[in-house]
Amino acid sequence: YFKGTWDEKFDAWKTKDYDFHIYNGNSVKVPFITSTKDQFISVFDGFKVLGLPYKQGNGLISGFDTFRKLLSLPYKQDKDKRQFSMYFFLPDTKDGLPLLIKKLASESKFLDDKFPNKKVEVGHFRIPKFKISFELETSDVLKELGVDLPFYPGSLTKMVDSHMDKHLSVSKIFHKSFIEVKEEGTEAAAITFGVVSNGCSLKAFIPPQIDFVADHPFLFLIREDFSEKILFIGQVFNPLDG
């Protein structure tokens, strides 16, 4: 589970509706958050990258039991030294996301030098508010990868103290995730659970002033910057499809 507050929050009163261009040639009205402050942006051939850091000391919460406990306790920001950031990979063209994703998938070191570390002056700057949820039944995928054992009748019998039929196994595995981006920050979560049945590189260049208007499909990810570990990654085709 992840919940982070932007290091510099966006003013809600500045949020306005603008067009977001989707792949079928149409556009939808979407609330965009904006700022005139300098931002972490790098420009590459064919795309730009925006980095929005979160306040240090809030972010990842591991384990739902820990999460429940934290709901009623103040979070002590001075103990967590990790630094989380959200990054937006915005193609230059409105239909450029597939090519960008292809590069990411085919070049193992594509991300190595793509994360901006210097603030630049911005011109037009807007990113859409969005909320995305996703659910996938992964049993077939896991079986294709050779993960068969949990699905065999009786495979969980010795692992579970149950009064059910002794031939326990996994019948389905679901993966659910969601992410929400707004003026205050980001909230995201991912969970995978099983249903038990009873036996039956390019160098960046920095122009004097940079526009970053995410009004067409883009890629996003959340990363812990010191360890360089990626927690969440996704793509936005239509911010209203959450």
Automatic annotation (TrEMBL):
SUPFAM superfamilies: Serpins. Residues 1-239 form the Serpin domain. GO terms for molecular function: serine-type endopeptidase inhibitor activity. It comes from the Eukaryota. SMART domains: SERPIN. One of its GO terms (cellular component) is extracellular space. PANTHER family: GH10112P-RELATED (PTHR11461:SF211), SERINE PROTEASE INHIBITOR, SERPIN (PTHR11461). Belongs to the serpin family. This is Serpin-ZX-like protein. It comes from Trifolium pratense (Red clover).
